[in-house]
Specification:
alpha/beta; 8-stranded mixed β-sheet; globular
Length: 200
């Protein structure tokens, strides 16, 4: 298993400053990991490096991790340019994995992108612009959309709101006794990408 990225990129975008990326090369399925607000592409204690390596080792996917200097503008257009540059081919699909604010970005900006086939959103705050999150979920036409919440996360109390959203491709997964950072049991954190590869 790899202990570091194959390479890293730093891209400066006029609308949202500098975004950093880590890449592990693999097949034509891209797992794109977006950190939470102001999070790095490496993550605390290298957690995104470890996760990327595990995904690549287990499923052979190309994995790209991204920092998140989010300021309210849509960063996904920039991220998608980077994914295109990394892949250098036309035929690939994206599995989007976003944590906290990274989850909001996926739900609010990524659900109508035809290359994004699956989305996992982890502890995306439901008390911030919920109407935009709901609209994004309703627009999703990909294969699967999974919302993961820890039972100790601040948004857990709002999860019943999701029951009113009519999209058969959406499912909700609750991680018992987990907090916002999914830090109580590392197995819970590192098993989240497996949800991409399980049948609904």
């Amino acid at each position: 298993m790899k202990t570091k990225f194959d390479y890293e990129l730093k891209k400066e975008f006029k609308d949202i400053a500098v975004i950093e990326y880590g890449v592990i090369e693999g097949n034509n399925t891209v797992v794109f990991i977006k950190a939470g607000q102001d999070g790095s592409h490496i993550g605390y204690n290298n957690k995104y490096v470890k996760m990327a390596s595990m995904i690549n080792n287990k499923y052979g996917c190309t994995v790209i991790t991204s920092s998140n200097p989010f300021d309210g503008n849509n960063p996904l257009d920039n991220d998608l340019e980077v994914i295109d540059d990394v892949m250098m081919i036309k035929e690939y699909e994206i599995y989007y994995l976003g944590f906290s604010n990274g989850g909001i970005i996926g739900l609010q900006f990524g659900t109508n992108n035809e290359k994004i086939k699956k989305i996992i959103s982890v502890n995306a705050p439901l008390m911030i612009n919920y109407h935009k999150t709901k609209d994004g979920i309703l627009k999703f036409k990909g294969k699967e959309l999974t919302l993961v919440y820890g039972s100790k996360d601040q948004s857990f109390r709002y999860v019943p709101l999701l029951d009113g959203i009519d999209n058969s491709k959406m499912k909700v997964v609750i991680l018992e006794n987990e907090d916002h950072h999914i830090s109580r049991d590392s197995k819970n954190f590192y098993s989240i990408p497996d949800l991409f590869f399980k049948e609904m």
